[in-house]
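re: that chain from earlier
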Amino acid sequence: MRALAWLIPAAAMLAATPAPAQTYDPNYPVCMQVYSPRGGGYNDCSFTSLPQCSASASGRSAQCIVNPFYAYARNPPHGRAYRRQRVY
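^ sequence. v structure.
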């Protein structure tokens, strides 16, 4: 029974794989996904506009996308947010 108790955590530790790092740069609003013929590829998040990205992607196996992790996409809340209660 003790062997089984040690076997389960050991199997869980061996089966765990490292998580990939975030490939999107949160400082730029547009990313270019570049595809490789061998199945790989990478993301290049160094563009400030879609036309700028499209010019770089022209003639390549790549496409431009809006960065889902862009840090300045939303305005941060200023101060404390108060909810108004409805008066009936």
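The mean pLDDT is 79.
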